[in-house]
């Protein structure tokens, strides 16, 4: 039982090892069960060393139009690019710790970012269009996060460094994990 | 390290017991840190027995406009009302098991719902406007879920039973956990 002003949580989420190849068919929502085991969903690093990405509930994969949920694991030392997007983004840190680098979008270029320590059982959100980077700065442990974005599929502007002007940031769309399904959905329309 | 086609997750999320009274000030985003410890966020049952609700990232609490994230725990036997809403909703089951009851919105009333077993480490989403109920039908364990909704704050239409016509369902807005902050934000505008 949960008392009104007292809480004791114990969350144990164990994704068993599994082996799954990414096949074209994973882009089709046909035949997918409504309730899906996250341990059986396709995961890949999409060519990015140290990353594991699973689209838990997706736009191109599951037909969502307003929200999308990812489960991502960053090996020690690995990180996202420096980037921004015009959708809202919420993080829930499930495991490990690291650093969020965050810079406002109010000047010509991001400039020196603020540094925020992020840790297991913490949450934070990225203000729309603010430039940010999530980095597993913990040398000993994976950083695992649930990521929620609005208005999928995501359109990301990528920066080479924090001094690059906003106008020089490069659009990456479709993004890594949406690329294959985006192209398939384009073919479907022909 | 995470290999490209192999995954082994171990997630341990322990929200330590804490005691926190709900004060008016929790509706203000002023002074809130960007990174927040979920164990220190206000939780309550809002008069609903067996429920624990935490707004992890919210519209009225944190200024989000497009997505909202809740952490909810249902004691054995407890459940949501039978309800629908026009926003998208994604569940990630963190702990326990239960039953999702789901009925289409395409007839005059919901009618007999489909039953779906939900379990730890599963995910599902509720099609927009479909009538549903989440029930902890496991007598021995709490059911803990992360809930993501779009277009907050949520507006819920509640049904007394599955045979009630859609047109008779009653709007509950603001919803339980938004009620206090909604009224405060109204006062702020005067």
UniProtKB/TrEMBL annotation, chains A, B:
Gene Ontology cellular component list: endoplasmic reticulum lumen
Residue ranges of coiled coil: none
Gene Ontology MF, one: auxin binding
Residue positions with a glycan: 121
Xref: Pfam families: Auxin_BP
Principal cellular location given in the protein's record: endoplasmic reticulum
Binding sites annotated in the UniProt record for Zn(2+): 83, 85, 89, 132
Signal peptide range: 1-24
Protein name: Endoplasmic reticulum auxin binding protein 1
Source organism: Hibiscus trionum (Flower of an hour)
């Amino acid at each position: 039982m949960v008392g009104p002003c007292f809480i004791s949580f114990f969350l144990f989420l164990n994704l068993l090892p599994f082996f799954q190849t990414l096949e074209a068919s994973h882009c089709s929502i046909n035949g997918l069960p409504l309730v899906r085991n996250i341990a059986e969903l396709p995961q890949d690093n999409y060519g990015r060393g140290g990353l594991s990405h699973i689209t838990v509930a997706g736009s191109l994969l599951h037909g969502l139009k307003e929200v999308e949920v990812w489960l991502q694991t960053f090996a020690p030392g690995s990180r996202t690019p420096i980037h921004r997007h015009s959708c809202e983004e919420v993080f829930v840190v499930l495991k490990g710790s690291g650093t969020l680098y965050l810079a406002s979008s109010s000047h010509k270029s991001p400039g020196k970012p603020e540094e925020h320590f992020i840790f297991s059982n913490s949450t934070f959100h990225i203000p729309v269009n603010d430039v940010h980077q999530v980095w597993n700065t913990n040398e000993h442990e994976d950083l695992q996060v649930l990521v929620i974005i609005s208005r999928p599929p995501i359109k990301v502007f990528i920066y080479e460094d924090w001094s690059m002007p906003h106008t020089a940031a490069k659009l990456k769309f479709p993004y890594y994990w949406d690329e294959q399904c985006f192209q398939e959905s384009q073919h479907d329309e022909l």
